[in-house]
Amino acid sequence: MQEEINHKTIALSINTTKMSARTLKKALQVFMKGSGVVIRKQKQRSHSGKQTIKKLMKQNTGLANVEITDENIGSFKRVAKKYGIDFALKKDKTAEQPTFLVYFKGRDVDVMTQAFKEYTQKQTRSKEKPSILAKLEEQKQNIAQDNIAHLDKVLGKDKGLER
Questions:
Q1: CA–CA distance from 42 to each of 35, 37, 39, 52 (Å)?
Q2: Angle, CA of 68, 89 and 97, to the nearest 5°
C-alpha cells in the first residue's frame, strides 16, 4: 500500500511538472505576441512619408523646401514613398497659378535630389507621349467621316440607277 502511494505521488509530481512547463510555454507565447503588438505600435508612432509640417518640425531636424508648380503632385508622392522620404506639402495660394512647397528634412537632401530627378524624368516622358484619349477621339472622327463618305457613295449610286 505504501508503495502504491509512493508511485501515485511521483506520478502526480511528474504530471504537475509537465503541466507547469506547458503553462509556462503558453504564457511565454502570449507575452511574445503582446510585446510584438507594442513594437508595432511604436513603429506606427514614428512618422514617415507624407505628414504635416508640424510633425516634421517635431523631429528636430533642419527643414528644406522645394517648389513644384505642377498640378500632378500624386506622382511625386509615389516617388517620395519609393525613396522613403519624410515630407510635407503646403499649397501656396498667393500666386496666380497655385504652387506646392515640398518641405523635407535637411539630412535627406541627397535622397531628395535623386527623387526629384526621377520625378522630372517621369513628367517629361508623360508629356512626350501622345494622349491615348486624343488618339481614340481622332480615330472615332476618321471612322465617322469614312462612314459618311461611304453612305454618300451608296446613296449616290442608288440615285443614279433610278434615273
A1: 11, 9, 5, 19
A2: 45
**Do 114 and 68 have their domain in common?**
yes
Q: How large is the angle between the packed helices 74-83 and 109-128, nearest 10 degrees?
A: 140
On the question of pLDDT at 31 being above 80, the answer is no
Chain mean pLDDT for the chain: 78
Q: What is the pLDDT of residue 36?
A: 63
First to last CA, the chain: 131
Indicate whether 116 and 155 sit together in one domain: no
When pLDDT is cut at 50, 70 and 90, the band that residue 163 belongs to is very low
Question: How far, in Å, CA of 41 to CA of 35, rounded?
Answer: 10
Any idea how long the chain is? 163
Cα 82 to Cα 20, 79, 111, distances in angstroms: 49, 5, 11
Contact between 63 and 104 under an 8 Å Cβ cutoff? The reply is: yes
Amino acid at 157: K
Are 37 and 67 in the same domain?
A: no
Check whether residue 123 and residue 58 sit in a common domain: yes
Residue with cell 504635416: 52
Residues 107-114, mean pLDDT to the nearest whole number: 80
Which residue in the block uniquely carries the three cell numbers 522645394?
66
